[in-house]
Design a protein that fits this description.
Blueprint lengths: L1 H24 L7 E3 L5 E3 L4 E8 H4 L7 E6 L4 E6 L4 E6 L4 E5 L2 E3 L2 E3 L4 E6 L6 E5 L4 E5 L5 E5 L15 E6 L5 E5 L6 E4 L5 E5 L8 H12 L2 H6 L10 E5 L2 E5 L10 E4 L34 E6 L5 E5 L4 E5 L5 E6 L11 E7 L2 E6 L4 E7 L1 H14 L3 H14 L4 H13 L3 H10 L3 H18 L1 H24 L10
Antiparallel strand pairs: 1-2, 3-27, 4-5, 5-6, 6-7, 8-9, 10-11, 11-12, 12-13, 14-15, 15-16, 16-17, 18-19, 19-20, 21-22, 22-23, 23-24, 25-26, 26-27
Helix pairs in contact: 5-6, 6-7, 7-8, 8-9
């Protein structure tokens, strides 16, 4: 089995290498692939293709200088935090210029941005919230550029001894509470009410229980106060970015030291509800097969966008890749890469989605890249949505159509298998899960199939057991009446 696995892995790697070479020669910007359940990359149809990469000059605002954040509001306007140009550029979804915000009014005086890092627009009120990083503030402004409220470093012992504020990202919930990611704070987002009063911290990451952390905890129990002061502290990694979808806040953490808490879905209490879901695609980034993982670069999720259907689109800074998952954690598509061609990135910073389009900013190339969903992508998205809506029969037909486009798309086999499983048609469910290498759901289907066999043959099984029991008792009775004669005894 191990030898077979290595052979298959080698063939898979060779196929991917050949695909990459073919891709390069044909001047295609990136290879489309997915993963099987062994963690091996397999060629796949493209769910999205890059249509164009737009510069500030093409929009008519001069060159972008590190476009650090993106946001699409309820009016389908795209807000671009052009950091080093100290402005917010607003376009429509076709990247036609609508407005530039580079001057604001506060208490009758002009004020200016200083490297804005984050932008959020409250769809309920229309207010803009801008992380004015080097001014150590978050401003709340109307669409005319009038600042109505300023959020600054909390004057509270709960905030700690941090001397700077340096807000990085911001979002607002339905109740008007404001959440700010601050680079120097690792206890979660700094939380304010709608009057800029500090409420505390929200959604802190956990400390991974490594051997070093456990050892430090043990020594802290038996050390003196002076020794504990000199001991390295174990602190959680702060999350990097977030998005809000109704009552849930989704966070990502740009860390290469741990896979814990890379993606979280937080309820109002700050609990990660993704832990309570059977995540089919629990690895949210590139998967590292064991036989060459020492040569790979760790994922570093730098942004997340969640659409109205709960579809999660993640941006990996280290690999320049976009990963898309449905609301249940099933991997849908993977695209992008590091490079200078269309659809590749040098320093991907922010991502937004709307309808069939994905927008990505690059702070080194100073561009906004637009991806459009393909026919294959539309089919997969529709099939996934039908399944999410519990319309299993319709989703099964769509997944079968997906396989006509791409026989390597293992998610389709799982979708078909689940449709059969929910219909209690266990044998074809087992067959599809076997092809998809999905051991978890194969076991469920097998259990249902076994129970059906037992139920259908219950009478025969009972009769057979009865015959066996009667036979055993009859044999014992016979042996008592006719014991074996010892050697030497007469007849």
């Amino acid at each position: 089995m191990i030898i077979t696995k290595k052979i298959i892995a080698g063939v898979s790697a060779a196929v991917m290498a050949l695909t990459l070479l073919t891709t390069t020669l044909s001047a295609t910007s990136y290879v489309s692939y997915n993963y099987d359940d062994w963690g091996d990359p397999i060629p796949s149809q493209a769910g999205y293709t890059a249509s164009r990469a737009v510069t500030g000059v093409e929009i008519g605002v001069g060159n972008f200088y590190e476009p650090a954040d993106l946001y699409i509001d309820a009016d389908d306007l795209l807000y671009i935090a052009d950091r080093k140009n100290n402005r917010i550029v607003v376009t429509d979804l076709d990247l036609n210029l609508v407005r530039i915000y580079d001057t604001f009014i506060y208490e009758g005086e002009e004020t200016f941005l200083n490297e804005p890092q984050g932008i959020f627009v409250d769809d309920n009120t229309g207010h803009m919230y801008i992380c004015d990083a080097l001014n150590d503030r978050v401003i709340k402004s109307d669409k005319e550029g009038n600042i109505e409220l300023i959020f600054t470093k909390p004057d509270s012992i709960l905030y700690g001894a941090e001397t700077t504020f340096n807000p990085f990202k911001v979002c607002v919930d339905q109740s008007g509470n404001v959440y700010v990611v601050v680079k120097s704070v690792n206890r979660g987002a700094v939380m304010y009410d709608n009057e800029a009063n500090f409420l505390g911290f929200y959604g802190a990451n956990t400390v991974l229980a490594t051997s070093e952390v456990i050892a430090n905890a043990f020594w802290n129990l038996i050390s003196t106060e002076a020794q504990r002061i000199r001991t390295a502290k174990s602190t959680p990694v702060s999350f990097t970015n977030f998005d809000i979808d109704g009552q849930f806040i989704y966070t990502v953490t740009e860390t290469t030291t741990t896979t814990d808490d890379q993606v979280k879905k937080l309820n109002p209490r700050g609990d990660n509800v993704l832990d309570a879901i059977e995540m089919a695609g629990a690895n949210f980034g590139d998967i590292d097969p064991a036989y060459y993982s020492i040569y790979t670069v760790a994922n570093a999720m730098t942004d997340i966008d969640v659409d109205e259907n709960g579809t999660m689109t993640l941006l990996d800074f280290n690999h320049g890749r976009i990963h898309q998952f449905d609301k249940n954690g099933w991997r849908l598509f993977l695209m992008g890469g590091i490079g200078w061609q269309l659809g590749q990135f040098q320093s991907a910073a922010a991502i937004e989605t709307r309808g069939d389009k994905i927008y990505v900013s690059d702070i080194r190339k100073n561009t906004i890249t637009v991806f459009n969903r393909t026919v294959f992508g539309e089919l997969v998205t529709a099939a996934a949505q039908k399944f999410t809506d519990a319309e299993y029969a319709q989703s099964k037909e769509m997944w079968e159509e997906v396989l006509r486009y791409d026989g390597n798309y293992l998610r389709a086999y799982t979708g078909i298998g689940l449709a059969y499983l929910f219909d209690k048609n266990y044998k074809p469910a087992m067959e599809n899960f076997r092809i998809a290498l999905n051991q978890y759901y194969y076991s469920q289907a097998f259990e249902g199939y076994r129970n059906n066999i037992l139920r259908e043959n219950f009478s025969l099984i009972v009769i057979g057991l009865f015959v066996i029991v009667v036979g055993v008792f009859a044999y014992r009775f016979y042996r008592k009446r006719h014991p074996k004669k010892k050697k030497g005894e007469g007849a």
